[in-house]
Amino acid sequence: MSNLAPSDKAYVPFVSVDNMMKLVHHIGIEPMLAGLADYIEEDFKRWELFDKTPRVASHSEEGVIELMPTSDGEVYGFKYVNGHPKNTREGLQTVTAFGLLANVGNGYPVLLSEMTILTALRTAATSALVAKYLAPKGADTMAMIGNGAQSEFQSLAMKAIAGIKTVRLFDIDKGATRKAAKNLAGLGLNVVECDSAEAAMEGAQIITTCTADKQYATILTDNMVGAGVHINAIGGDCPGKTELAPAILERSDIFVEFPPQTRIEGEIQQMAPDHPVTELWQVMTGAARGRTSDAQITLFDSVGFATEDFSALRYVRAQIEGTDYFQDLDMLADPDDPRDLFGMVRRAAPK
Amino acid sequence: MSNLAPSDKAYVPFVSVDNMMKLVHHIGIEPMLAGLADYIEEDFKRWELFDKTPRVASHSEEGVIELMPTSDGEVYGFKYVNGHPKNTREGLQTVTAFGLLANVGNGYPVLLSEMTILTALRTAATSALVAKYLAPKGADTMAMIGNGAQSEFQSLAMKAIAGIKTVRLFDIDKGATRKAAKNLAGLGLNVVECDSAEAAMEGAQIITTCTADKQYATILTDNMVGAGVHINAIGGDCPGKTELAPAILERSDIFVEFPPQTRIEGEIQQMAPDHPVTELWQVMTGAARGRTSDAQITLFDSVGFATEDFSALRYVRAQIEGTDYFQDLDMLADPDDPRDLFGMVRRAAPK
């Protein structure tokens, strides 16, 4: 090892957007969604192990920037994620994200990854994993209300993990529906474009809502929702942003990731602070019951939790091993003698 | 713009360790320390503007991993930093760090940078900036107690910013002193290697303590500290880690960055929770007095605050403009149509 060339310790594997897309196609979208769901389920099942810091949010008029850290005691992870609903007007993503894993024992990062695509994948994988537990038996049709960036991922994850065969699309913007239908063509799903939310929900056992406006909206009203369905509510995910009429929440059994966070960010921000909810990890470990009757409405009040990102990063870290789908980033100063940082800098002076 | 090539928006300028060292030599170490001090001072002077979230720490037996976010309302920044005192035994850095700036308006990152070197520089620049305000007039000699990775940066910053001409080095490990003396040779400082802390302090108007053990240590005892000096206490920077005898704190006027953080992490964790302190930003704006007499002992109880990292990243962002000292990182997914993330992924499939 020379005094100038960084050692292996100085490098952090980085998965760029380009490499993430290559990894997705190397693995296949559906197998990747299923693989992510396995990791997410595994981590939900060891829920009590995790350091569950609430996310650290920096709010502004335009949106929010958040850091979502967690740790299982051996590996530490965090995600940087923004949410700026008006971004699309300027041709920007509403949500962009990247994430990091580090070794708890020495604090050295071990993975840096884009997470815009990965978050879309893990959100969909989580939804489908939860639907596998909560949707009525034999569910094969999903209403997909809101056909933005997340909709195709949701549809395909529900196919890969929860047995959905038909997706019924609706968006107030017909162009979004057209785009989603085009993107889903030829992927083995029966895709139906619908003219109204009501039409999309015909015959659907799973109803997914995923709209983006930062406001209290009512995408679903009470009379639209029949008995026995599973509602997968994705879009109500920050303070002041909900999609469901409170009356639907009253009729539903509500399942959440991490109650302290969901009560602030989820649909249940509309309810009393002690409104009963069931924690997903308890359903997965068998400590709590999921669906108990055919007539029951189950509701996954999804807001996204740090452990899901952690699981997704763990999955990516395992998958890139032995591949070329990452680059080594010279991100950590690593002098030969750790006390000799200055010497390293000084020796790097041009001759 | 093709459907596959990322647009400009997808790229985040990244300053690697190698490029940071190149930037340091391009600017010059002393001008860079002075430039950093200017940015740090500027941000201290607009202190009330900043979103001062406490740092988010994940503690383990071996050390700590922290996220330090802040924002001035237009730019958001955070630093990832670990502290693992036992790392040096395995040839690793005690502290490694990287940081990020993002646009508050749309949440898009605008800079990712190594911060192991940058933190060393900003810590030293902050110390020297504070000494400029608090050290006795005409101070020209500094005792540097603890000759680890930070010591040369401290010495050079005190030269560049606070007018120090002589540095008197001491470390319980003579090898560390040797290393620091060698690194500082030929840089315009009079460097004296000393056999004891007492010897190092002879004739010194500024006393810098910077030792790394994670424990309550007493690097300075009460009888070692004479009247009129300025103490720059760097190493007491996390719960359970201090360097000064409480009696010294009793005799000193204590200046701190952000009281709620310093009371937990700094030397004053040894004192009552209401022990009087002065906030540095108030000294810099003129709202509070700094040194008021020749006999007074001033003490900077330094723990490092998020705004200093923010200032340092701002400085780097300004300095790399028009240079080659960064690379563009493909970190943000940026589809032509922001709602078409899935389409972007699908179109990236190999033919």
UniProtKB/TrEMBL annotation, chains A, B:
Broad class of enzyme this protein falls into: lyase
Pfam families membership: OCD_Mu_crystall
Superkingdom of source: Bacteria
EC assignment: 4.3.1.12
This protein's UniProt keywords: Lyase
Molecular function terms from GO: ornithine cyclodeaminase activity
InterPro entries cross-referenced by the UniProt entry: NAD(P)-bd_dom_sf, ODC_Mu_crystall, ODC_N
Coiled-coil regions listed in the entry: none
Protein's name in the database: Ornithine cyclodeaminase
